[in-house]
Amino acid sequence: MGYRWYHATGTKPLYPFGHGLSYTSFEYSGLMVNKTAKDVTAMFTVKNVGNVDGDEIPQLYLCFPSSAHEPPKQLKSFEKVFLKSGESQQVTFTLEPRAMSIWNSKVHNWEKVSGQFTVHIGASSADIRMSQNITV
Fold first, then answer.
1. What is the chain's mean pLDDT, rounded?
2. pTM of this structure
3. d(CA 102, CA 115)
4. CATH class of 3-10+17-135
5. What is the C-alpha separation between 2 and 19, in angstroms, rounded?
6. Under 8 Å CB-to-CB from 118, ≥6 apart: which residues?
7. According to the model, what pLDDT value does residue 15 have?
8. How many other CB atoms sit within 10 Å of the CB of residue 93?
9. Domain boundary assignment for the chain
10. Could you please report the per-residue DSSP string of the chain?
11. What are 84-113's pLDDT values in tens digits?
């Protein structure tokens, strides 16, 4: 069992996947998701709004269209950033086509999924701060 099962069944673990402890607080803002012929990028800003310096690990979770029959959220990218008190930083995640594909066991190959995906940005799998839909 893991975070995918917890989210699929609505079970709340004591510490969700990606949860970290910090002596400061972070604010997320300005999510922009762009699609090109090659990939999808998600850009946003993380700001340390606490009184002490600290690390944060923003995470990108992807929700597939329901027709894909995939778990509700899948971790696709993360990055550790160190921010001094009051400092902010833009974070960019790039998703290549395989990130939006599923394994087809009948043909033994990756198969790209089309439809509406949801990009979630958060501090853990249960602490989603921003979301945006995108059609691929």
1. 92
2. 0.87
3. 13
4. mainly beta
5. 13
6. 62, 63, 131, 132, 133, 134
7. 67
8. 21
9. 3-10+17-135
10. --HHHHHHHT---SS-TT----SS-EEEEEEEEEE-SS-EEEEEEEEE-SSS-EEE--EEEEE--GGG---S-EEEEE--EEE-TT-EEEEEEEE-GGGGEEEETTTTEEEE--SEEEEEEEEETTEEEEEEEEE-
11. 999 999 999 999 999 999 999 999 999 999
Contact assessment for residue 24 and residue 48, using Cβ atoms and an 8 Å cutoff: yes
Q: Which of left, alpha, beta for 44 (phi over 0: left; psi -120 to 50: alpha)?
A: beta
Residue range 4-19, pLDDT digits in tens: 676 677 777 666 666 6
